[in-house]
Every structure is written in C-alpha cells, then in structure tokens.
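ok trying again, last paste got cut off:
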Amino acid sequence: MAVFGYRVTDREGRVTEGVVEAPGEMSARDRLREMGYLPIRVWPASAPPGKIAGPAEKGRSARGARRDLLPFLQGLTTLLRAGIPLDRSLEMLGDLFRAQAMGNVANSLLRNVRAGQSLADAMRKAPGSPFSRFTVQMVSAGQATGRLEDALEQAYQFLERSRDFRSTLLGSLLYPAILLVASILSIVLLVVFVVPRFAVVFSSSGVLLPLPTRVLLAVSAFFREYGLVFLIVFVLAYLFFSAALRRPEARRAWDRAKLGWPLVGSVLTAIETSRVMRSLSSLLSGGVPILPAFVIAREVSGNLAIRDGMEAARSRVQSGAKVARALAETTPFPEMALQMIAVGEETGRLEAMLESVADTYEGTARRRLRNFLTVLEPAVILGMGLLVGFIVFAMFLAIFRMNEVPF
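nice, full thing came through this time. structure:
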C-alpha cells in the first residue's frame, strides 16, 4: 500500500488536506469519493504537489474569453459527469483551449483550485472576468450542495438560451435597420445631390414652378446650406441625452417610460419578464437561497426600473411577504405572470412555475416582435416610396410646366 497526499473539498465547499493509503492514485481518488469528498489533487506522499505555472497568454481579450465561455462550461460539465476530477478536468480544458483566451482562464482556475480555493472563488478571480455573478453563484451553490455538475449544466443552459434569444432578436431587427438606414441615405442623396442639378435648369428657365417643386427645392436648399449644422446639432443632442441618462433618476424614468410605449413597450416587458424569471428559476433550482437569488436575478435585467423593483421586492420577501405579492407591489411584470408565480408558491413548485413563466413570455416576446416587424417593414418601404414618389412627381411637374412655355 502506498501513501498519497490529497487536497479535497467537502459538500459544504471546505477545502482540507491529508494523507490516505491506497494501491494507486486512482484507488486513492475512489476512496476519497467514498468518504464523501471531491478530490482536487492527489499526489504520492514522497513528492510535493506541483504548481502549474502555465504560459502567460497576454493579449487575450476578455471578449474572446466570453465568446468561448459556453463551450468551456459544456466541456467542464461533460468531464465532471464522466468522473474526471476537477483539477484534471481543468488541466484538460487548459490544453484544449490553449490557443484561445479561455486557455489562460482554465490555467488560472487550475492554479487557484490547486492552491486550495473553491472553484467559485477561482472563477471570481479569473482573468478577463468571463464568468458572470450568476455563473459564480450557481457554481458556489452547486459545490455547497454537492451538485456541481448539475449547477454547471443549469448555468450553461441559461447562458445558451439567453444567447440564442439575443441572437434571434438582433437577427430580426437587422433587416429593418438596414432598410431604414438605406432609405434615409437614399432620400438624403436625392435631395442634396440630385435635386440641385435640376434646380439650376429650373431657375434659368424663368418659369413659375409648381408648389410641390418649390417646396422640394426649398428643402434641398435648406439641407445644402444647413445640413452640416443640423448634423452637429443632432450629434450634440444625442450626446446631451446620453449624458442625461447617466443620472440614475433620468435613466429610471426613461426605462419606466419605455415599457409603456405603443408596440415596443409590450415587447420590452415580455423580454424583461422572461429574462428575470428564467434567471430566478435557474438560481433557485441550483440551490441558491431566495434572497441572494433576487439580488443576482435583478442584475440580469437591463431596465433600471425593474432592477429597483426587484430590490424592493427582495426587501418585502425578507420581511415575510410572498414572492408573487412582493413582485406585484414593486415591479411592472404582467398580471398573468404574477398569477402563475402565486400558483407556483401555493403548490410548492415555484422553480418550475418560474421556468414556465419564462418560456411563456419568451414566446410572447418573439410573437410580438414578429408582429411589430410585420408592421415596421411595410411602413418603412411605404414611407420611402412616398418620399421618392413626391420627389419624382415634383420634378416632372416642373418639366411639364417648362414644356408648356413657347419658345
């Protein structure tokens, strides 16, 4: 029997060290698992545990690390479910991602874990901060409950679904945005560069031009003379508005007003409801207590009014209020969502009902966005057609008037 030193973590996340007798290293790891520990590192007692220096992969951006976050979490979950120890899993991932930013992150995690830190603490200190507070709390809860693999899986599924939903939204808005920009540029080019060429011909003819043509020429002259001033004023107004939104009071009022906009408001409300409820469901299912879960879930929302409402709801829940009632008193979430949450509380299935609410309003957001785009795209095309038609109509009216003049 050989003697092996070990560094392990228990179900509460405490790290301890000691020695154990076993025929081999794998047998030592198996014995430690039978004792209820999660092996971090096992080494022959005659040799001290080595340190992983790891290459210094400078220049890797935090953006690149976040881009590879989902494959990293998926790989870590798969390796742990296969029974591979945490340190060996991180070592394998460091080798797998060595040419990418997450390779440096994996090596950092490995160094800190082998130094005795928990995986959650190591994630907090990871270079580039690729792990959100949501992910760190999920991992921390998973280690505390002995369900690290399940916690990583839930974090991965949440992040993947959030990414897919965000990609769907951006993809849906891309075509209307391109169409709107192209329409505006086309109108500006016609008014600023094409119409003035006809204006020279019209002015030399001495003919009284029709009213639509005079209006068009006046607009063209205005943009030619004051277009740069108009652009500067627009940029300054945008900068002033952006600076004003940095004030919490102004941002809170703006975010609250957005939720009441026609067409757009209902889409934003559904998106925020789905995002917060899915985060809250994942946290509670992962073993995070209700009050910390509220603190983390509020950070998922990009709407300051909802974030403040979630904080106020947390205070009410801490005082003993029901979750549904607290949310109803402080947040702008839809009535149906609050009723579903109340049912979940009464039946003891709050996590499942929160997930159902998230699914419901994700589908609602997709449907309302599709309906909004169904109206927006024809509106943009029609608006562009009317403007171009007016320009052409005004030009032809002037040409016809000139042809009526006897020479």
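cool. The two ends are 118 Å apart (CA to CA). The first helix runs from residue 25 to 34.
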